[in-house]
Design goal:
By secondary structure, the chain is an alpha/beta fold. The protein is built from twelve helices and 13 strands. The chain has three domains: about 80 residues, Nucleic acid-binding proteins (OB fold (Dihydrolipoamide Acetyltransferase, E2P), Beta Barrel); about 150 residues, 3-Layer(aba) Sandwich (Rossmann fold), CATH 3.40.50.300; about 90 residues, Probable gtpase engc, domain 3 (Ribonucleotide Reductase Protein R1, domain 1), CATH 1.10.40. The strands form three sheets. A six-stranded mixed β-sheet has the order 10-9-8-11-13-12, with helices on both faces. It has a five-stranded mixed β-barrel with strand order 1-2-3-5-4. Strands 6-7 form a two-stranded antiparallel ribbon. The structure holds guanosine-5'-triphosphate, magnesium ion (MG) and zinc ion.
């Protein structure tokens, strides 16, 4: 029986259907990206590829370029006659994204076409529920299913307590605990891994994402941080990478993200408890600060809801408010923040002049 490499890589019926629109081209999956050069996994082999001039010309922003996990249509089956040319990206069924790290408001997709997102957080000093809420919000809007993976269980002697705390934040989400130290330390991950399904590993630097993937691969494919290298500012993994597991299944390693900005976040899903409380406030436009009959404040007062969780919710909501503005409103908002809402026209003109330089 012919082993179908494309199916192992996650090429579904739907994608097959999409691909029939390009009868002269071949499908391939983006495994790595190094500036303009992509490594793509095709039907026969892994080859280097670049985006066609036409595709680059027509791209409106970075979202239109291929990212790791994307299915693209290329012009050849093997690399014997040089680099392949990517002509288009097939529609993404899911995308884990964030706002770019710089000042631009353009989004950035971290990985595409993923079925499950492993949000990795270690049980030692990296444990931070507020960060987890942030990751969950972005994960819910990606169309993939989040799973919280708590790592380094061997370094924590309050695993039960941490699990309970995590469960309060990760409502309706599976939580698994693992450790690189035990022989069967990754057993809990196995039920999520299957032929043709893609899992992206996300989370802060140093939590053990690459270590887990190496273990699943059965060999040290990815570089992991040296023991004793405590330089926390450094990321060991420097680029995203898609790998095919020997026993079936696809994983994507990502570098720890320095900042994960809420972009296409789905707050209500992550904060269902708060939204539910809010629906019981006396006033429908309750700001949950001083109003009488506020169910949210009542829940905080009687310990049902943590003040910190509520504060984070408000903070993330503010971020999204900013995010949801269109480019013109955003420009106005920036001007307001820079010069006050009664901006002097001279200052504004100067700002635009510098901006367009
Ligand atoms: N004690 C203990 N150490 C672990 C565990 N998992 C990983 N480590 C160690 O943690 C360090 C960081 O692991 P990496 O796999 O490089 O972390 P990463 O999440 O890939 O980090 P970036 O690539 O920087 O995003 C390494 O020294 C690992 O050996 C674990 O379960 N227990
Ligand atoms: Mg890594
Ligand atoms: Zn209220």
């Amino acid at each position: 029986m012919k082993h179908d490499r494309l199916a192992s890589l996650g090429f579904t019926r739907e994608l097959q259907q999409e691909a029939t629109r390009y009868p002269e081209l071949y499908p391939a999956r983006v495994a790595e990206q190094h500036h303009n050069i992509y490594e793509v996994m095709g039907e026969q082999e892994t080859l280097k590829a670049r985006v066609s001039g036409k595709m680059a010309y027509n791209a409106l922003d970075s979202m239109d370029f291929p990212v790791v996990g994307d299915w693209v249509m290329i012009d050849r089956l093997d690399g014997s006659n040089g680099e392949a040319v990517i002509h288009c990206v097939l529609p993404r069924k899911s995308a884990f994204g964030r706002k770019s790290a710089g000042t631009s408001n353009e989004g950035q997709i971290v990985a595409a076409n993923i079925d499950i997102i492993f949000i990795c957080m270690s049980l030692n000093e990296n444990f931070n529920l507020r960060r987890l809420e942030r990751y969950l919000s972005v994960a819910w809007s990606s169309m993939a299913t989040p799973v919280v993976v708590l790592t380094k269980a061997d370094l924590c002697d309050a695993v039960e307590m941490r699990l309970a705390e995590t469960a309060e934040v990760a409502i309706g989400v599976d939580i698994v605990v693992c450790s690189a130290m035990a022989e069967d330390g990754y057993e809990e991950l196995l039920p999520y891994i299957s032929e043709g399904k893609t899992i992206a590993f996300v989370g802060s630097s140093g939590v053990g994402k690459s270590t887990m993937i190496n273990r699943l691969m059965g060999e040290e494919i990815l570089k992991t941080r040296e023991i004793g290298d405590m330089d926390k500012g450094r990321h060991t993994t420097t680029h995203r990478q898609l790998l095919l597991l020997p026993g079936g299944g696809i994983v994507i390693d990502t570098p720890g993200m320095r900042e994960l900005q809420i972009d296409m976040a789905d707050l209500s899903r992550s904060f269902e408890d708060i939204e539910e409380l809010a629906s019981m406030c006396k006033f429908s436009d309750c700001s949950h600060t001083k109003e009488p009959g506020c169910a949210v404040q009542r829940a905080i007062a009687n310990g049902e809801l943590s003040q910190k969780r509520f504060d984070n919710y408000v903070k993330l909501q503010t971020e999204i408010g900013y995010e949801g503005l269109n480019s013109r409103q955003l420009e106005q908002e920036k001007i307001n923040r820079m010069f006050g809402s009664k901006a002097d026209m001279k200052q504004v003109m100067k700002y635009y002049k510098n901006k367009n330089k």
